[in-house]
Amino acid sequence: MIDKINRLKAEIDALKASKADEIEALRIKYLSKKGEISLLFNDFRNVAAENKKEVGKLLNELKEKALNRINELKENLDSNSQENNLIDLTRTAYPVNVGTRHPISLVKNEICEIFGRLGFSIAEGPEIEDDWHVFSSLNFAEDHPARDMQDTFFIQRSPDILLRTHTSSVQTRVMEHSQPPIRIICPGRVYRNEAISARAHCFFHQVEALYVDKNVSFADLKQALLFFAKEMFGPDTKIRLRPSYFPFTEPSAEMDISCNLCGGKGCSFCKHTGWVEILGCGMVDPNVLEACGIDSKIYTGYALGMGIERITNLKYQVKDLRMFSENDQRFLEEFESAH
Known about the structure:
- By secondary structure, the chain is an alpha+beta fold.
- The protein has 11 helices and 10 strands.
- It folds into 2 domains: 2-85; 103-338, Bira Bifunctional Protein, Domain 2 (BirA Bifunctional Protein, domain 2).
- It has helices at residues 2-13, 20-31, 36-43, 52-85, 103-116, 131-134, 168-177, 218-233, 286-291, 308-316, 329-333; strands spanning 121-122, 128-130, 154-156, 161-163, 182-191, 203-213, 239-246, 249-258, 275-284, 300-307.
- The longest helix has 34 residues, at 52-85.
């Protein structure tokens, strides 16, 4: 009896099955009413009285071993079936051709790397924001057009929850919870209610920078902008600053670079002016600093912001903004040499 039990234990340890009917056949062979283990239990009454305790224990262990092994085979089969069900038979057959890193990502990383060399660290924030961080803390008047439904995607009213229209909201969050010196760059996706065309989209990507410390001046801003332009577009790039207006900076300016296609001589791309606008900038308005808990009598700062799509267009001459979000592999393959 003990020899039979040991033989069956060895058999059960070696059991294998890849189909449900094979597992069922093994169950019937060993555990059914007429199975080998059941037959051993029937023969148990013929075992000598002094051996019943030992043999009974071995029989119970054998039955438990068989049950565990059968269940293990079933679990393995179920697991493999679930993995097979994850295969999408409608997808393109292997090997799948892949594109390259998206041009928006390439340019964003390059911008962050350039400002990283100036000591800026990356800060990120939520895309679903409240009115305070997007508008009120940035010195927007209550009747400012940017609050209108024509420009902003509002999710709810009272309190106002919306999709952020710029990454300046990240700057206010950092200023609320940090004290100067603050030197951050804020990349991310933003949303505005615009008609989709070759030159505009309802979402796009921005990079904004903020530097707040003692004695920060407009000269510091101009030097940082010149460094960025030369690193991004080439050492011969020139910049010019034109007076402008933003609620959150004073004084404010728009920055142009010399056209990198014609070298500033004038072409159709720069509308024969020799200059191309790329970003807005200015000194942080004292009202913004005070709203975020920073003493404007001690600290000053500058901020700047640019659309990544705009910079990408200038760098790679992409004529249609919609191509960035069409997920066309042929478009991505054009940027293999940009890595």
